[in-house]
Amino acid sequence: MNPLYIVILSSIGILDSFYLYYSKKHEKKIVCVIWEDCDAVVKSSYGKTFGIDNAIGGILYYAMIFSYGIVTLLNRNIFKETIVYYLIVIASIGSVLFSIYLTAVQAFVLKKWCEYCIVSSIISLLILLVLIF
Q1: Which of 50, 66, 77, 80 would you call most buried, defined as having the most Cβ atoms within 10 angstroms of its Cβ?
Q2: What would the pLDDT profile of 86-101 be if each residue is shown by its tens digit?
Q3: CA atoms lying within 13 Å on the CB side of residue 3
Q4: Other C-beta atoms within 10 Å of 7: how many?
Q5: Are the beta carbons of 4 and 76 closer than 8 angstroms?
């Protein structure tokens, strides 16, 4: 595992999630480069889970991963094969599974796409891959 990759990927994830949260919170149109339906996806009823904005969950998840990456970068052996490492991997698996669910919602329910959501899904998968390899 390369903690620098974890820090870089989680930083991108934080920025991605923060942009979605900020745009939604301040009722700004989400600027999409590839598709035009980002607003429809992010502001749909699927934009919240248990009443919590998905972007807030993303920010919290990526902040946790970022913190883990920074601490591991400073001391590579601090979390080696400890419960913290396994909890981070479990959280990452949960993030990937949730991303798969939200991607399926975009494809089969909403039939609209949000490139920021797709980027977040890819980042979650990459973080998991970096953690386990």
Answers
A1: 66
A2: 999 999 999 999 999 9
A3: 17
A4: 18
A5: no
